[in-house]
Every structure is written in C-alpha cells, then in structure tokens.
Amino acid sequence: MSVLEQVKKIIAKQLDMDPSELEESTDLQEAGFESLDVIEMIFNLEDAFKIDIPFNANETDTSQMKTVGDIVRLVETIQAGGSMPKISTAPTSETPAGETPA
C-alpha cells in the first residue's frame, strides 16, 4: 500500500468517510478536521508508519499540513530523515524585542 493510500485510510477513518472520497488536494479543514483531529492523526501516522513526528501544538507550524498531499509529503520527508517545520518565535520588525509573537 502506498503512503498516499495509507494516509487516506487514516484520515478517512477519523472523518468517518470512505478513503476514495479523499484526493491529494483535499483540504483537511474543509473535510471536517478540527485541531484535536490533527493530534490524533499524528499519533495514528506514527503508529502506522513507525516514525516519530516531532509535533508540539504550541510550536509546530501546521500551515504545512493543510491537505492530504501535505500529510503524504510530511510522512515521506520524515521517512527520508527530514523534519517538520517549526514556528519561529524570534522577534520580527513587527514584534518588539522581549515580546512573543501572537
């Protein structure tokens, strides 16, 4: 089974739908995913693919996890030894030094 097929199966089970209803371009939020679903999906992906996804709800940039295809690429990147993007908490020109970005 391909990574795409496995990811679709995991997401479809969480959303109580048939995997054939999901495409790589399917937007997870539009399909019904909520914030807690992301956490559950991370656990399910780790179990299914025997990988460690360094996910922290306060630090992980979930903007790279919007579609089914994004999740497939995330799994493939981690399998290849890559890592997830993190949210930068460094001050920017719009964030005064000493303050945390919102």
List strands and helices in order, with pairings.
Layout: H1 3-15, H2 28-31, H3 35-49, H4 68-79
Helix pairs in contact: 1-3, 1-4
- Distance between the ends: 41 Å
Order of helices and strands: HHHH
Overall geometry: globular
Helix content: 40-55%
How would you characterize the largest beta sheet?
Answer: none
Using DSSP, what is the number of strands? 0
Mean model confidence by pLDDT = 81
CATH fold name, please? Non-ribosomal Peptide Synthetase Peptidyl Carrier Protein, Chain A
Number of helices: 4
| Alpha-beta classification | mainly alpha
Do you know the CATH architecture? Orthogonal Bundle
Integer tally of domains: 1
Radius of gyration: 15 Å
Strand content: under 5%
The CATH class is identified as Mainly Alpha
Poorly predicted runs of 5 or more residues: 86-95
CATH superfamily descriptor: ACP-like
